[in-house]
Each structure stands twice: as C-alpha cells, then as structure tokens.
C-alpha cells in the first residue's frame, strides 16, 4: 500500500526536477538575443551565429557611478540580457548598485534568480526574510570584500550604513532575473489595488492606505 502512495509522489518529483524556476541550460554554445526576431520563445530568438560579433558578448560602463539622487538614495545599473544580448539562454547576469550615504535598495524580490553580492566600497547592511510562517529576518552588516547570498524569490534589501558612498556588485542566476519592488507592487499598481482591501490586509485605516498610494 505504502509503495502505491509513494510511486505517484516519486513521479511528480522526477517530473518537477525538469521544471525549475531557474533558467534552462543552453543546448548550444550560445544564442545571442535577437530582440527583433519574429519568433516568440521563452527568452529571445537567436541571432544567426555566423553574424555574431564580440560586441554581442560585451558591455561597457560598470566602472561608472550610478545616479543616486532619488527618494531611496540608490541606483541599480543592470547588465542583463536587455543590455548584453549574448546572455540569452546562459542563465546569468550581474549589476552594480550605488548607494548614497544611508541610501537603501528597498525590499524587493527577483522571481527568477538567486543573487550573490559583494561590497566593493563602504559598508552595507543586507537582509532577507524567509517565507511563511516563520518570516524570519536574516540580516548582517557587510564590509568591503564581504559576500552575501539572497536565496531565489525571497524578499531582500540593502542599506548603506556608512557616511560615504557604498558600491556593491551582484551576480544573478538568470539572464532576466526580474524585479518586484514590494512597495511599488502593493501601493503603486496600475490600476490601484482597492484601498479597502489593502486597509484590511495591513490592518490600518483606508486614509493611511490612500496616503501611501499617493507616494507611488
Ligand atoms: C541625477 O538625477 C537627478 C534627478 O533625476 C537629476 O536632476 C540630475 O541631473 C542627475 N545627475 C546627473 C549627473 O546626471
């Protein structure tokens, strides 16, 4: 009897191991993105391999400081398949994050990627929150040269805890990690999520929700 119950479970496990949320492995040396390709596939269609140039695998500018003059005091400079077409199908990307003094990268998640971060300059508090029901905050202050990993899909954040600028470089396990910023998604959706729904969800007055929605 027990094996009859186990068997379908095993089948599902085996099937699911081929349907992970992470990017698929490439089936050829490369598939440089052809954003104008007429074929709609998961990712981008491949540019003709004979026409591929070194420039398709190249990006320049990550030495440049991002503009942090904004409400949160940080700027992400992404290098994903959108900026570097050679990343198509390779399951990897990176970014530079600049922080003004006390600037933050607000709580957000990458639906398709684990993120690994290293501090190049300054001192940065990082953290992520585990899923329900524990919702445990795991947080640490990092110094230059330290490395921290944010597991795939979990809500995470960074904060410059120094008086000078801070810089981090991150790697992401997707050519197109995606970003869902919690505050924007919840309070800045277009059209708005109904304010009475959010008032109940956050256990506050509708006026508080209206105020927060007006900021996004
Ligand atoms: C940085 O961004 C701010 C706000 O958008 C803008 O006013 C300023 O000119 C920008 N600075 C540079 C150097 O681009």
Stretches with pLDDT under 50, minimum 5 residues: 1-17
What ligand species are in this complex? Answer: 2-acetamido-2-deoxy-beta-D-glucopyranose
Structural class comes to alpha+beta
Strand arrangement, major sheet: 1-2-9-4-7
End-to-end distance, in Å? 56 Å
Radius of gyration: 21 Å
Q: How can the largest sheet be summarized?
A: 5 strands, antiparallel
Output the CATH topology of the largest domain.
Answer: Jelly Rolls
* CATH class bucket of the largest domain: Mainly Beta
Estimate percent helicity.
10-25%
The H-level CATH homologous superfamily of the largest domain, spelled out, is Jelly Rolls
Q: Just name the CATH architecture of the largest domain.
A: Sandwich
- Round the mean pLDDT to the nearest integer and report it: 92
Number of helices: 4
Entry summary:
The protein is an alpha+beta fold and 216 residues long. The chain has helices spanning 2-16, 182-187, 195-202, 206-215, and strands at residues 74-79, 93-99, 104-109, 115-121, 124-129, 137-142, 147-150, 155-160, 166-172, 180-181.
Description:
There is one protein chain. The chain is of the alpha+beta class and 216 residues long. It folds into two domains: 55-178, Jelly Rolls; 181-216, no CATH class. Helices cover 18% and strands 26% of the residues. The chain has four helices and ten strands. A five-stranded antiparallel beta sheet has the order 1-2-9-4-7, with no helix packed on it. A five-stranded antiparallel beta sheet has the order 6-5-8-3-10. Helix 3 crosses helix 4 (206-215). The longest helix has 15 residues, at 2-16. The radius of gyration is 21 Å and the shape is globular. 24% of the residues are buried. It binds 2-acetamido-2-deoxy-beta-D-glucopyranose (NAG).
């Amino acid at each position: 009897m027990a094996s009859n119950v186990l068997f379908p479970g095993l089948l599902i496990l085996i099937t699911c191991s081929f349907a992970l949320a992470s990017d698929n492995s490439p089936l050829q040396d490369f598939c440089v993105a052809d954003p104008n390709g007429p074929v709609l596939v998961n990712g981008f269609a491949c540019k003709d391999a004979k026409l591929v140039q070194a420039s398709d695998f190249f990006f320049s500018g990550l030495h440049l400081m991002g503009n942090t003059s904004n409400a949160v005091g940080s700027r992400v400079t992404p290098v994903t398949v959108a900026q570097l077409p050679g990343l198509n199908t390779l399951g990897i990307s990176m970014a530079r994050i600049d922080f003004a003094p006390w600037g933050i990268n607000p709580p957000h998640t990458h639906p398709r990627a684990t993120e690994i971060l290293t501090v190049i300059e300054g001192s940065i508090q990082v953290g992520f929150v585990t899923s329900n029901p524990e919702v445990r905050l795991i947080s640490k202050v990092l110094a230059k040269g330290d490395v921290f990993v944010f597991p795939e899909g979990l809500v995470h954040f960074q904060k410059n805890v120094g008086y000078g600028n801070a810089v981090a470089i991150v790697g992401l396990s997707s050519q197109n990690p995606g970003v869902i910023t919690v505050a924007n998604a919840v309070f800045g959706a277009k059209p708005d999520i109904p304010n009475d729904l959010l008032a109940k969800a956050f256990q506050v007055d509708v006026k508080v929700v209206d105020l927060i929605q007006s900021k996004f």
